[in-house]
Recover the amino acids of this structure.
């Protein structure tokens, strides 16, 4: 279709009217999607961020459900307490107990005055994210709950659900906007060449949607934008993958002997130090030898098939090949005695409530960021240690609050890497 310059008007240009209508329709579609998705996207981001914070800071002591780990299960926590109270409790529970807060004192007594780690650096938004994730995890668990009399269906909330949904929505919006840009470019080209009297171009533009697609494919700007978006998505995937290398949270390998920590450490109350003899005096906690097992099993349950595996190991003079669960990279130095004997940390701080684990699993991420956060938030145990007296006095004079591990070199690279 050729439109002479003297007869050209936007009102009688069929192509312009159709394309303009399409652009307006696309614009309002994207606008509507953005309005409806805005709240969902924000909530998804909060849940995703809250999940990360929960796994890094809370998972070793709390479950999102009703089950007790070290501390109470967090199911329904938002209904039990107001956000203001929860924020104060999370940032410094000991201060609330010392101030005589009735609910805080009640919780302390219920859990035998077990001290909760303080998180003074968490913002209101971060705490809201954690609480949102707790609610989300329980809602997801309820959605997959088995029917009455049925078996367990599934294991809870999918870790990647919210973030995957957000990525899909984002990609869909990007595709829509690229299409809008393509239509605009084609429209500008058609109108400008029609006004200039380019008959050949006008005839080509009148060939329909196929010609428009061809023009879009031949447009260098659109090709460059497409390649750029593709490179960004590939780069994000690679970076996410790189950050997950070596992180084995949830790893629970099958062991050569079905040893139950729930039975031995939980029901029978055997102290962790009895089997892991090096935890108070050396870098490694050590894996118990067969001789330690035989201190009891030389007379207890000798006929058990699992105990017979220990006998066989001793008879053949072969060690039991336990599969290591918690494994730091060789470039990182970690000393159990420094944390357990000097700092006074419980095993549960890093390993979770092993007393309830039939099969031991890695509960914490054990990443460098996880360790650094702990050093930033943990108070130094200075009671009864004259070594710290002068340091604590100077620290308090400077008004820096309680003495944290980071204040005594806990963030120096050479502490863990040398």
């Amino acid at each position: 279709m050729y439109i002479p310059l003297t007869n050209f008007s936007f009102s009688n240009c069929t192509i312009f009217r159709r394309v303009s209508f399409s652009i307006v329709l696309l614009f309002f579609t994207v606008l509507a999607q953005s309005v409806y998705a805005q709240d969902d996207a924000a909530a998804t981001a909060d849940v995703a961020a809250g999940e990360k914070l929960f796994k890094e800071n809370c998972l070793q002591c709390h479950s999102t459900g009703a089950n007790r780990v070290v501390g109470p299960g967090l199911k329904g926590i938002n209904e039990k307490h107001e956000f203001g109270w929860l924020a104060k409790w999370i940032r410094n529970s000991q201060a609330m107990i010392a101030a005589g807060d009735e609910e805080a004192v009640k919780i302390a007594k219920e859990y035998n005055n077990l001290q909760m780690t303080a998180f003074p650096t968490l913002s209101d938004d971060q705490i809201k994210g954690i609480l949102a994730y707790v609610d989300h995890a329980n809602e997801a668990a309820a959605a997959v709950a088995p029917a009455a009399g049925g078996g367990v269906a599934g294991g809870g909330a999918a870790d990647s659900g919210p973030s995957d949904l957000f990525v899909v929505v984002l990609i869909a919006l990007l595709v829509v906007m690229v299409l809008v840009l393509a239509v605009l470019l084609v429209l500008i080209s058609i109108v400008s060449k029609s006004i200039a009297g380019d008959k050949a171009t006008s005839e080509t533009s009148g060939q329909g949607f196929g010609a428009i697609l061809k023009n879009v494919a031949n447009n260098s700007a659109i090709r460059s934008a497409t390649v750029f978006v593709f490179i960004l998505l590939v780069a994000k995937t690679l970076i996410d993958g790189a950050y997950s290398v070596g992180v084995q949270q949830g790893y629970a390998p099958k062991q050569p002997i079905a040893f139950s920590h729930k039975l031995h450490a939980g029901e029978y109350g055997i102290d962790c130090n009895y089997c892991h003899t090096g935890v108070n005096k050396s870098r490694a906690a050590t894996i118990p030898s067969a001789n330690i097992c035989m201190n009891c099993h030389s007379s207890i349950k000798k006929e058990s098939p699992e105990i017979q595996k220990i006998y066989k190991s001793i008879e053949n003079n072969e060690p039991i090949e336990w599969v290591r669960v918690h494994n730091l990279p060789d470039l990182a130095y970690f000393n159990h005695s420094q944390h357990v004997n000097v700092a006074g940390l419980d095993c549960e701080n890093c390993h979770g409530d092993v007393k309830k684990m039939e099969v031991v699993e890695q509960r914490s991420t054990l990443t460098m960021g996880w360790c650094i956060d702990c050093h930033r938030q943990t108070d130094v145990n200075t009671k009864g240690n004259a070594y710290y007296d002068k340091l604590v006095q100077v620290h308090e004079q400077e008004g820096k609050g309680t003495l944290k591990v980071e204040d005594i070199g806990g963030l120096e690279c050479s502490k863990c890497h040398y």
Summary: Confidence is low (pLDDT under 50) at residues 1-13, 145-163. The radius of gyration is 31 Å. The chain is about 55% helix and 0% strand. The longest helix spans residues 14-57.
